Q: What sequence folds into this?
């Protein structure tokens, strides 16, 4: 939304002249006193506060000082009669206002001054956005490094576990051969149990190994890029997620898509994080219709993945914070890292992720990736 200019003056004639000077050129609001102006400041995005000095200071209220403390990014411009120029300069020196204009103002001067003040405000706003993006990227990166170190340290004991499991498996084979010779059904049944338990342990260690590998590769600046069929990634990821989904119905709509270039494991992480969130959001949804759908399609050289659910949706004030590391509304078990990691992976693949949602209307996350041109 476009930021506004807020003009505060208790002189109605000045307000009328101001309105006719800026109408159709800059969006604005007006106020006749400090209290009214404060209310507008807290309910609208005000880029420039243009205030008549007398109108904004009253008993117990100093609008410009309050604006400086509570809305430091708003550019404050004071209007003062020529006889008060010295005081106006003091205000600038103290940092209460950024600059001042003499009243009555010259229309052209007012226009130029508001234009440059608004430009300055927008630049500050852009900088703030960049700062917060940078901060969030740095936090994910730092966290990724710690995770990679832990993953690395887990590898050694895990290696011992894997080789011991292999030894145990071959010993059991020997025992099996001997028991088969004795044909004792009771002991053979026990052996079968042991073999099954061992196979489950081997499967679990394989997954831990795969996770440690992918955590390590996420932090490497470049991962080995291969041609990846996103449709296949979706189908494979959903096969293992179906277990978590329980009775929830997942609708899958996919078409053949061109490959994207990147890491299969990381793209599977993207699908998993989005689908797990959708499964968690729709646990309480009733009825036999699918509670979430996963769609893959391509359009104009881009491959799209949409994960859409019929859950409770997302509060508007949370929408901007979803991709921040550690932002979670889950009281149990949520780390708030799923979407932060997801966005990092998507951006690393040259893509982007967006979300649309309204409370009680479900949520839809769309990932867009560049289709690779095979040479
Ligand atoms: N499909 C969705 N419907 C409603 N809210 C969602 C959905 N997906 C994400 N959210 C909101 O975004 C927040 C952040 O999601 P994210 O995946 O980053 O973390 P998490 O799910 O809380 O924790 P973790 O992923 O570590 O288990 C969630 O806590 C939830 O409030
Ligand atoms: Mg999550």
A:
């Amino acid at each position: 939304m476009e930021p506004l200019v807020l003009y505060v003056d208790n002189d109605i004639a000045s307000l009328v002249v101001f309105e006719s000077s800026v109408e159709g050129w800059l969006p604005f609001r007006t106020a006749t006193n400090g209290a009214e102006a404060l209310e507008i400041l807290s309910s609208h995005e005000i880029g420039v506060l243009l205030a008549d000095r007398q109108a904004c200071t009253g008993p117990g209220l100093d609008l410009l000082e309050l604006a400086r403390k509570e809305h430091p990014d708003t550019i404050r411009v004071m209007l003062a009669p020529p006889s008060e120029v010295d005081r106006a300069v003091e205000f600038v020196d103290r940092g209460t206002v950024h600059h001042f204009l003499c009243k009555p103002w010259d229309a052209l001067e007012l226009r130029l001054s508001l234009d440059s003040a608004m430009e300055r405000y927008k630049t500050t706003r852009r900088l703030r956005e960049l700062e917060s993006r940078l901060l969030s990227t740095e936090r994910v990166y730092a966290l990724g490094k710690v995770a990679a170190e832990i993953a690395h340290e887990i590898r050694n004991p895990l290696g011992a576990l894997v080789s011991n499991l292999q030894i145990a498996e071959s010993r059991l084979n020997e025992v099996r051969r001997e028991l088969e010779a004795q044909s004792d059904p009771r002991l053979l049944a026990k052996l079968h149990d042991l073999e099954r338990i061992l196979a489950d342990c081997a499967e679990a260690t394989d997954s831990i190994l795969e996770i440690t590998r992918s955590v390590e590769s996420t932090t490497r600046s470049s991962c080995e890029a291969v041609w990846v069929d996103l449709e296949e990634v979706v189908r494979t990821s959903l096969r293992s997620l179906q277990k978590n989904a329980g009775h929830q119905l997942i609708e899958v709509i996919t078409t053949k898509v061109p490959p994207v270039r990147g890491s299969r494991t990381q793209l599977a992480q993207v699908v998993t994080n989005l689908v797990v969130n959708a499964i968690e959001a729709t646990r309480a949804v009733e009825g036999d219709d699918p509670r979430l759908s996963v769609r893959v399609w391509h359009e104009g050289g881009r491959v799209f993945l949409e994960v859409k659910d019929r859950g409770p949706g997302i509060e508007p004030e949370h929408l901007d914070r979803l991709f921040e590391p550690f932002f979670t509304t889950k009281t149990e078990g949520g780390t708030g890292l799923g979407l932060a990691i997801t966005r990092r992976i998507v951006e690393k693949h040259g893509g982007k992720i967006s979300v649309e949602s309204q409370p009680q209307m479900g949520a839809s996350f769309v990932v867009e990736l560049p289709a690779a041109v095979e040479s």
